[in-house]
Write a structure and sequence with these properties.
With 405 residues, the chain is mainly beta. It has 1 helix and 25 strands. A 3-stranded antiparallel β-sheet has the order 1-2-3, with no helix packed on it. It starts with a helix and ends in a 12-residue tail after the last strand.
Length: 405
């Protein structure tokens, strides 16, 4: 009996033990879950916002960080909807199109006074252009005394008077006396063998006349020579009907009384057989012509030439330049003024002078003759004229300068 009771008691204890084990495991879990739920409720009660949200606090934008609002950007133009408002720039342009005495508002709500004068019409009448009958310089056919004619449109857009068309294939500018007031022309283009053609000319049409070709006096003849101031000029013809001067410098000066250079002196063992040629001038000799003073000098042994300088006064006094009034010097002149500078040019009376230095410390004038005269307002010669044949420019490459000229 006792043994059965003990066995029953052991069976009863098994569910109790299992229940206790379950309670031992479930109780901590239930406590932990309760604690987490309380923490969640506490955090939910403390949070002010969700991450990423924005709001306006006055003119400041606030952003949500860690469940709390944090001040961010300050808006100078104001805050709205959690963002800064766009700044509005005042614009008074509406006033120019608003009549005086009235007001207008810009996009910012600013008020502006009207500036437009509405007392005058805004669209004045546009002046009309008289109608044109034709385009300037256009032509059209017309009837001239029963014969073909033409009209030309003038600058006002009106047709001019009808004029005759010359029926000849080759028109002459001259009119034969036998034709009277009728033009003369020729199919072959030869006016001399032309025939009378066309009808009577209108009385108000003048008969054209040929302009006579002016007779040109040749500047020189072929072979003609001139020697002035150590410059020799020889006339030659580079092309038929063309005459020009060819210039060259006489190293020994011009031969006195003749249009040629002095012969070049040659050295010889016997001076008596080859006497020294007569010099063009004597060393130191002076002369003055047309406001230019000439002084004889010897740039190389045996070679005497004239050196020229322009008179400052523009006048001669005997063989020298007429002196200008000498101003009272304020201080003594220490350095002599050179007569010219290398490369300096002067052109007076058709004579071109160029300054050069034949030796160190020496400055002299070299002279040459301008074939076409001095260029006005410039110290240089006029450009040479283009050779012409019978009044027309000579074709390029048609003529060559003869050798030796």
């Amino acid at each position: 009996m006792r043994g059965n009771w003990r066995g029953s008691w052991g069976v009863v204890q098994i569910p109790l033990i299992v229940g206790m084990v379950i309670m031992a495991v479930a109780l901590p879990v239930a406590l932990k879950l309760g604690s987490q739920s309380q923490d969640t409720r506490n955090r939910a009660a403390e949070s002010q916002c969700s991450s990423g949200e924005t709001q306006c606090s006055g003119n400041t934008v606030q952003t949500c960080s860690g469940g709390k609002w944090v001040n961010g950007q300050y808006c100078s133009s104001g805050c709205s909807g959690g963002a800064c408002k766009n700044a509005c720039a005042p614009n008074s342009s509406c006033g120019s199109s608003t009549c005086k005495g009235q007001t207008c508002k810009d996009s910012c709500g600013n008020t502006w006074q009207g500036q437009k004068d509405c007392s005058t019409p805004t669209n004045p009448p546009v002046p009309t252009t008289p109608p044109r009958d034709c385009d300037t310089a256009a032509t059209q056919d017309c009837n001239w005394n029963g014969k073909p004619g033409y009209q030309r449109c003038n600058a006002e857009g009106k047709w001019g008077a009808c004029q005759a068309k010359n029926p000849c294939s080759g028109e002459c500018l001259a009119y034969a006396s036998s034709c009277g007031s009728v033009g003369r022309g020729s199919a072959g283009g030869d006016c001399a063998s032309g025939v009378c053609c066309g009808g009577a000319l209108p009385t108000n049409t003048p008969i054209p006349t040929l302009t006579p070709t002016p007779t040109v006096t040749p500047m020189c003849t072929v072979g003609e020579k001139e020697c002035v101031g150590g410059v020799l000029r020889t006339c030659y013809s580079p092309a038929p009907g063309t005459l020009v001067w060819n210039t060259s410098i006489c190293e020994t000066g011009c031969k006195t009384g003749e249009s040629e250079c002095n012969p070049t002196p040659t050295s010889t063992p016997t001076p008596t057989l080859n006497p020294t040629p007569k010099a063009v001038c004597v060393m130191g000799e002076k002369k003055c012509e047309v406001g230019i003073e000439y002084t004889c000098y010897e740039p190389y042994p045996g070679g005497f030439v004239w050196n020229s300088i322009k008179c400052e006064s523009g006048e001669c006094l005997g063989d020298i330049c007429k002196p200008e009034p000498t101003p009272t010097p304020t201080k003594p002149v220490q350095t002599p003024t050179p007569m010219c500078t290398v490369g300096e040019k002067e052109c007076v009376g058709g004579v071109l002078r160029t300054c050069y230095s034949p030796a160190p410390g020496t400055l002299v004038w070299n002279t040459s003759i301008c074939e076409t005269g001095c260029k006005t307002g410039a110290n240089e010669c006029n450009p040479k004229l283009t050779p012409t044949i019978s009044g027309r420019p000579a074709p390029k490459g048609s003529y060559r300068r003869p050798k030796g000229l």
